[in-house]
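Hypothesis: this fold can be encoded by more than one sequence.
Test: take the structure tokens below, design a sequence, compare later.
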């Protein structure tokens, strides 16, 4: 059987080089190796499928072989046995029985003994030690060719070695190892010295004898051969790992066993102890995750093959690994509960803080709203104060102007009255009554009134030079006031000029202008009705005309 090409080249050469150095240094890359093992286990169905394809092909060939072609059928039974011997006990034993039955039909003693060896190998691999010995004890080695003799002696040696490993005590194990080594010596005497089998058995013999240095040298030398099959690689690295386990170099042993398990999976070898040994080392090292992976693989292999001794081995460590896994799960569960409780507490704290913050934000918004409203009121008050101040300033300007104007006017009027008084007094003193009558006749009240109004117009327009323009802007063009030549204001304008001056009472306006109240009211109504400004806003707009 040739090794799978996927396990050849760089990776195997690297491992071989490391092992050839026999270095006592720590082996690195264990995590990467275990990751590769995980990936290999995931692809296990593909390797087994290829194995099954070869078996199915041989079965079809056997089905097409005539029943009277005993030699052809014997050879096909042998090939099927070889495919099954490390793959599945029931089938390997079945085809070993077929070999025995066919050899009896052929009546060939050598082939009959050969078939018994195959039967014994299947029984031994499945852990049926008594049945295996019963089969081996009936083998007559003298009738076997040298190659089959070597196989027989090697199988007897393995039988005693396996018994010693199974008992694993200081009384029986040494005895079994000595018996096993005697048979191995007999096998080595028949095997060509430079073959893999000869090298492996020499190394195995040194290992069982306690000669670690010799076993290490011999087994390591085997790995120099790049043509090893995957099964040979698995057997050699697995056996070599036992040396490092004994010396306490666990990391090197784990590396070798990892290689062995990968090779076993890729060669579809189910009768193996590598996965179990690797699981034991990983468990002792505290790597429960990978230990569980390996022990499950060991269980699957033992169940699939039907190896009773492997099932017993697995039962010794499986409960501990599962208990540790359970402890890890419980620990993780406690951690998760703690984290969940912590996160919940933090979440509740955050919710509480968020609620407090929201309440504070609401209060701040309410306070801000109050402040804003107060600010708006303050602005409104300030605006009103500004308007009032502007009006006061405007009123002050008007008062200043008109107080000055009326002081001048009153002074002039007082001078006139004083002159008139002196003149009258003189006329009375001189008893010139006709002159008095003439003097009184010369007094023109209308002219005085017109002069008074004219002076008012001049004084008003000095304060409000744009009054007429602004006033006309509140009317359509055809309804605007048109002044005659020499006119400063007309009666319509003068009424609202007095209003702008602050004289709101129609009766007072009528008294000043010497009109009736009804006339003033009629004037005001007529003017407002012509305006483009609503009546209720008209006088307000007049009051907004600014003084200069």
């Amino acid at each position: 059987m040739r090794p799978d090409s996927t396990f050849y080249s760089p990776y195997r050469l690297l491992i071989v080089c490391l092992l050839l150095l026999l270095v006592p240094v720590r082996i690195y890359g264990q995590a990467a190796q275990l990751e590769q093992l995980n990936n290999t286990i995931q692809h296990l169905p593909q390797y087994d499928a290829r194995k099954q394809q070869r078996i199915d092909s041989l079965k079809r060939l056997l089905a097409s072989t005539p029943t009277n072609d005993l030699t052809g059928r014997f050879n096909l039974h042998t090939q099927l046995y070889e495919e099954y011997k490390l793959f599945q006990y029931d089938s390997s034993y079945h085809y070993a029985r077929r070999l025995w039955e066919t050899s009896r039909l052929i009546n060939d003693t050598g082939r009959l003994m050969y078939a018994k060896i195959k039967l014994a190998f299947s029984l031994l691999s499945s852990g049926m030690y008594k049945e295996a010995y019963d089969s081996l004890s009936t083998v007559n080695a003298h009738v076997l060719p040298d190659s089959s003799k070597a196989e027989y002696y090697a199988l007897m040696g393995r039988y005693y070695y396996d018994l010693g490993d199974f008992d694993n005590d200081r009384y029986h194990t040494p005895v079994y190892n000595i018996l096993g080594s005697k048979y191995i010596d007999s096998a080595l005497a028949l095997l060509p010295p430079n073959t893999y089998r000869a090298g492996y058995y020499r190394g195995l013999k040194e290992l069982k004898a306690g000669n670690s240095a010799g076993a290490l040298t011999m087994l390591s030398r085997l790995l120099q051969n790049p043509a090893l099959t995957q099964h040979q690689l698995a057997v050699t690295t697995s056996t070599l790992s036992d040396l490092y386990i004994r010396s306490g170099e666990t990391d090197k042993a784990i590396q070798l066993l990892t290689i062995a398990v990968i090779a076993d999976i890729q060669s579809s070898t189910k009768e193996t102890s590598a996965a179990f040994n690797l699981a034991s080392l990983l468990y002792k090292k505290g790597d429960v995750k990978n230990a569980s992976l390996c022990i499950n693989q060991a269980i699957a292999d033992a169940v699939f093959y039907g190896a009773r001794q492997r099932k017993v081995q697995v039962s010794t460590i499986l409960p501990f690994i599962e208990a540790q896994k359970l402890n890890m799960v419980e620990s993780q569960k406690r951690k998760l509960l703690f984290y969940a409780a912590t996160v919940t507490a933090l979440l509740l704290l955050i919710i509480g803080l968020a609620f407090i913050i929201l309440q504070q934000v609401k209060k701040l918004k309410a306070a801000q709203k109050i402040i804003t409203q107060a600010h708006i009121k303050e602005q409104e008050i300030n605006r009103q104060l500004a308007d009032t101040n502007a009006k006061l300033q405007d009123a002050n300007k008007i008062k200043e102007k008109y107080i000055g104007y009326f002081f001048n006017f009153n002074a002039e009027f007082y001078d006139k009255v004083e002159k008139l008084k002196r003149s009258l007094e003189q006329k009375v003193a001189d008893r010139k009554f006709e002159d008095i009558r003439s003097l009184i006749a010369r007094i023109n009240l209308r002219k005085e009134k017109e002069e008074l109004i004219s002076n008012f117009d001049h004084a008003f327009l000095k304060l409000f030079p744009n009054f007429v323009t602004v006033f006309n802007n509140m009317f359509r063009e055809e309804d605007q006031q048109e002044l005659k030549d020499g006119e400063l204001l007309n009666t319509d304008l003068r009424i609202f000029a007095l209003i702008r001056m602050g004289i709101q009472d129609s009766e007072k306006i009528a008294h000043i202008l010497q009109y009736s109240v009804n006339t003033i009211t009629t004037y005001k109504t007529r003017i407002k009705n012509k305006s483009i400004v609503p009546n209720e806003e008209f006088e307000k707009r007049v009051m907004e005309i600014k003084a200069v």
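Residues 1-28 have pLDDT under 50 and may be disordered. The radius of gyration is 64 Å.
Hypothesis status: open.
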